Structure formats: structure tokens, C-alpha cells
Fold each of these.
Amino acid sequence: MASQNQRSSRASRPRVYVLVPLLRREAETVDLTIRLVSEHALTRVHRKIFKEVHGRLFEIWEKYEDDDMTTTQLLRTCSHIIGLGPSTTQYDIHDEDF
């Protein structure tokens, strides 16, 4: 029988079915990244992406500050923007801000 620490440790680790698609996506971009670095083009691409992502984050932050969105909505939207969402797990308790 697993101890409480072992169960807790297992629960906090990312699941394989979550990690595999992320690792595959990363592996698919390695060749392109190597080529872009060798051509000194990567800096321009990163600047454009950085600018777009931060622009979108600032837009939703403004909505949050204007009370047009809840904390939960803000966090979910941020996770989508930075590429961590959507979450396949939803808990009803998180649907309303307390």
C-alpha cells in the first residue's frame, strides 16, 4: 500500500498523456530552431511572438481590472495565450470566484 507521501508525489507529477504531446511538439520545432539560429533569424521571430503575446496579456489584464472578467477567466485565458491551455479538467468549485 502506498504511503501518503508517495500518493501526493504521484498526484503532483504531470501525467504522461499530457507530457507526450508537449514533448512531440517541442521535438518538431528543434530542426527549425537550429536552422533559424544558424541564419540569425530567430531573434526577429522571438521578438514578434513576444510582442504579440504580451499585447494579448495586457488586453485581458485591462478587462480584468475593469471587472469585465473574473479571476478564473483571467487565469484560464492567460493559460490559453501562453500555450498551456485548454485544460481538459474542470472543477465546478472554480467556476465562481469567492
Note: The first helix runs from residue 4 to 12.
Amino acid sequence: MTRRSSSPELLAEAARFRDLMAGWPTGVAVVTGTAAGHPVGCTVTAVASVSADPPLLLVSLAARSRTLEAIEHAGQFGICVLSAAQRRLAQTFATGEPARRFAGVPFRWVLGVPVLHGAMTVAVCAVQEALPVADHVIVMGGPLWQAEDHAAAPFIWFRRGYWDLCPAGPPPGVLDGPKSTLNRIRFTLKHNDFRGRHGHHAHHRKVPPRSRSAPRRGVGPHRTDRSEAPPWPLAQRQQPHLGNLHSGTR
């Protein structure tokens, strides 16, 4: 593969490129490591699966990152995908003083790597390769240990702000069969409870009474009546603007 050098045109578009990537919704994680027996970590959004056989994932860290230095020295790192309840940790590990990021934060040691309590998904990985690319280093690791909390609620980073999510619909097959109506009610109640616990509020709209003489609009073979509309709209709520979340810079 031929390597192209940076051109003035590309350098001039760096700011616009950041705007482009701000439109990519992504989960938020904290990558952790150990330096001289002390926990270190930073917030990242560039985490991806590389291979399932063998299992490999990658995380992108700034070349000047102190966390990267600790990871390369120890040969191991942790990935903690944050839950909605840990939104403050995302900002703490992104901008807080590196030496104090773990102050008051509950965690435990797994295979010599700090793992945050309350994360949705966690993994401890062995470094397989570290590939320098421009001003970042792509670290590939193979999981040595992992755990998931399926009850935890997710949140994402999108357009420089945090967004909460709730299910867009029930799992496949839930509304099929003779118990479909009962399953729909159960899912709707559970969904509303989810929104209530995580700060979402249903938006109600007053509908004027329809005259008996007024025809029913849109009822036919090409439209589902409003009463049959799915009761699980995607609910999102943007958090206050927090500026750029510099992924893996420290």
C-alpha cells in the first residue's frame, strides 16, 4: 500500500473533519491500565471489534497519552463501557487531573488491571500489537476476562453531547403468537418504567374530538390505524453541550 504524505488541503480540513466525526454516534468507554501499582485511565470513543476468531478488539489512544504509556509497559489494559449512570465518569476521565481520576471511584482489580464498578461491559485484554498511525496509536488486544451487565442502560456521545437511549422495540418474536397483545402491554409498561427511571418523559398531545360526519383519514390497506402504532418510540434526550470529548488523549 502506498503511503500518501499530508497535503495542505488535508491539513486545512482538520476542523471540518472533527465536525464530520461528531455526527457519528458512539458508545463511551474508559480504558484502564496500571502504572507503578497505581490505576490510570482515560475516556475513549474509538473502540471496535477486530476479529471474533481469534477474539480481538482495538482502542485508539493519543500518542502522548499517559495511559498508553502505562499500557505498553504493562502489556495489559481494561475496557469499561460506561452505563448511563456513569455519565460523570466520562467527563472525569476525559478532562480531570490524571492522578486524581480514580479518587472516590469504585473499582476492583482483575488480573492486575483496574475495572470500574457499574460498567455495562468490561474486559481485561492482553496487548497483541500497538500500531502508530499519525498522532495516535492503535492498540489491539485479546480478551483474557470479560463480564456484562444486561440490566444497565446505555448512553452515547453524539454531536459533542451525551444522549440517553431506550429500546426502539421489543426483541424479535415477542409480539408474535396468541399472547401478542399481552406481550405488547408488558413491553410497553416495562418501557415506560425504563423511561421514568432514566429521566425520559412521555410527550402527550391533545387531539381534538372528531366529528361523527368527518371521514376517517388514511384507514385502508396501505396504512395501519393509529391504535396499532408501536408503543415504543425511540426516546432520546441530549445533555448540555460539553464541548469536544478528546478521546484517549491522556
Note: The longest strand covers residues 121-133.
